[in-house]
Every structure is written in C-alpha cells, then in structure tokens.
Amino acid sequence: MTPRATRVLVLNSGSSSLKYQLLDMADGSRLASGVVERIGEGPVADHTEALEAVAAELAGAGLGLDSPELAAIGHRVVHGGPRFTAPTLVDDAVLAEIERLVPLAPLHNPANLTGIRTALRLRPDLPQVAVFDTAFHTTMPEHAARYAIDTATADAHLIRRYGFHGTSHAYVSRKTAELLGKDPSEVNVIVLHLGNGASASAVEGGRCVETSMGLTPLEGLVMGTRSGDIDPAVTSHLHRVAGMSVAETDELLNKKSGLAGLCGDNDMREIQRRIDEGDERARLAFAVYIHRLKKYIGAYTAVLGRVDAVAFTAGVGENAAPVRAAAVAGLAGLGLSVDPERNTVRTGEPRVISPDGAPVVVAVVPTDEEWEIARGTFATVTATADSAASMDSAPAGAGESAGPID
Ligand code: ADP
Question: Which ligand 1 atom lies nearest to the CA of residue 323?
C-alpha cells in the first residue's frame, strides 16, 4: 500500500463567504488558510467560482486539490437534525437528508450544500465528509432535548433541542480533560463558548448532556446580536400590539437583540471601553450578559452534580478577562474562583486561571473548530478505508486509533 494521504481540506461555506483551511493530520500543521468573501456581490459570482479560486490559490502553493496527499475534504454543516450523530461520508442519500433539514437552518444548510456539491464537481473521486454542528449534542438525554410542548406537533415538525457549536464543545471539552491530565471519560466539564454567537454545554465523561442552544441558535445565552432565552409569547405579543410580522420578529431577535440590542454595540471590546468611560447602557448590557451566564453555570452545575472544570473559549471567552472574572464572581459556594493575575495572562495555549487547589478548575481553552472538523473527517475516511481493507485481509486498527494525532 502507498503511504496514506494525511491532508484534509476543511471548507466552511456560508451564504456569502467560503472559509478554508488545509491541515496535515500527520503532524497537525496548518498548510494554508483563507477566506473568500462577498460571494455573489463582487468579482466572485458564486460558490463554484469561489472554490475554483481557492483551488487555484492552493495549486499555486503546490497544494492543489489533485495532490495525492489530500485524503479528503471536510465540510462544516450547521444542521444535522436528529439523524446525523457523527461525521458522515457524503453520498446522494446524505445530500438528500441535509436538503430535507433546510427548514431547520434556512440560511446555513443551503450554503453548506452548495459547498459540498461544488467540491464534488471539482473532485468527484475524493471522499467528502459532512461534519455537523449539532452532532456532539445528540447524546443529550431525551429529557434535555424535549421541549414541553404537544408531542405530536413537536414530532411532526422535528421540533426539539439540537444545540450548535458542537465541534467547538467537543474539542474544548477534550482539551480541558487533557489540561487536567485526565481522560475525557473521567471528567465533567462546563464549556462556555462565548463568541459573537454564544453557547454553554455540560459535558459528562466526554458526552454532552445539556447545551444552551435549541431548535435554532437563538436559545440560551445573551449573544452579540441574539436575545438568547426569552418568553416565546413576546413574538405573538409584538404581532398583536405592533403589527410585527414573522420576518420582523425573526430579525429583531436574531439581529437587533443581545448586546447590540441592549447598548448598540455587539463587540465586547467596545463595550468594555464604554464601561470604562462610565457609559450606563454598556454597563447594563454587560450586566445582563453576565447574569445569564451565571444562571447557566449554576444550572449546569446542578445538571452535572459534580463539576471538575469550567472552560472559557471563543473570541470573548478567550480574550475578555473581565467577562471571566465577572462570570464566576460570587460563585465560591460552587467551588469557582479565578486568580486575578492568572486571568490576565494572554497566550494561545490552554491554561488554568483558578487558584491552585480550587475545587473546580477554571480554564481558558482556545477553540479550533477547523481542526476538529479535520479530525472528524480524517477519522471517518480512515475508518472507512480500514473497514474496506479488513474485508479481505487481517484486522485493521479501527477508527480513531488509526487516525488523527491529537
Ligand atoms: P464568531 O461567533 O463570529 O466566530 P468569535 O469567536 O471570533 O466569533 O468572537 C468574536 C467576538 O469576540 C467579537 O465580537 C468580540 O466581542 C470578542 N472579542 C474578540 N477579541 C476580544 C478582546 N480582546 N476582548 C474582548 N472581546 C473580544
């Protein structure tokens, strides 16, 4: 057998952008990365042209899509519905199922599908793997995934809590276990993914048991522009008293709410600057954000029973020391505190910010969703190759052990 191809191209196709990274799973190196923006608005007419441009750029660097070292393309797919519980090798049936889930993610899944179809056209022979934002959360017990609404209505329309940011929660919870020097199966972790979108998860022994986003990414924490938890009657109330349409309330809750709705800014850096200047609206926005975060830390402590670590990640979680300090302030009763000096250190590495000997480790663990997508993709194609090989030869190392280095 020829040496195994170990490179994975990760594609994240948004409605008007295409982000890519080329990773080598043999040594974890990042060989190329970039983004094509404003697809359909400028010189790049559509996703086909965008991917062709990426392919040309990679070829120029000697990393073309026809390289024998390329093992697979991994695609981020936002909504995997109830069926996709793991990274999945793409075939016609998988494409049809992702298409069927479009009503659950009307902005994201069509863009993701376009990316996959385009890549398939360029390299029909290369394995393509769909890696779902929802998959990590499919281990949630039924009592956490169910909304308390009429069961027949819920089931007819696939209404349940799915959760998102799954690749980040999976990666960060695993890295946190590593930081503690333990196997993921031995630790309970609360992961706080605080970016422009934000979500929390409770991970018990490596399995997600609860997460804050729901049917859509709107539920849960206060975000940059999303409200997070809100009485659902607000939408019908606004319809009755203000004549607002479904589209208008959707826009209100997803685009004009959260930090932006509260104070006009969704960037935590700007909010902190305004607070330092004594701005009252910014202070209140911050307080609402922190209050919600604290409630989730408390709730997930109750869900898990025993918490070994709380991990902060993503743009805000990794960079905003005041958010981390405020989120755990007053939670010593739950075993949570941060050391003020450790909290302000800045590195790209996972690090503990709680004092030595604290009952619960508080940590900053930078996320890497692209790496997690590449890892899932590579494990999938390796397992597929191994099971094909084992049909006619000696047993092969199964799945993950034969695959990625992480
Ligand atoms: P996305 O959800 O778009 O992937 P990110 O995880 O990149 O978001 O987070 C982006 C957010 O991180 C910004 O909107 C900003 O609020 C916050 N952020 C980035 N750097 C800092 C910083 N140094 N201090 C505070 N907040 C920051």
Answer: 25
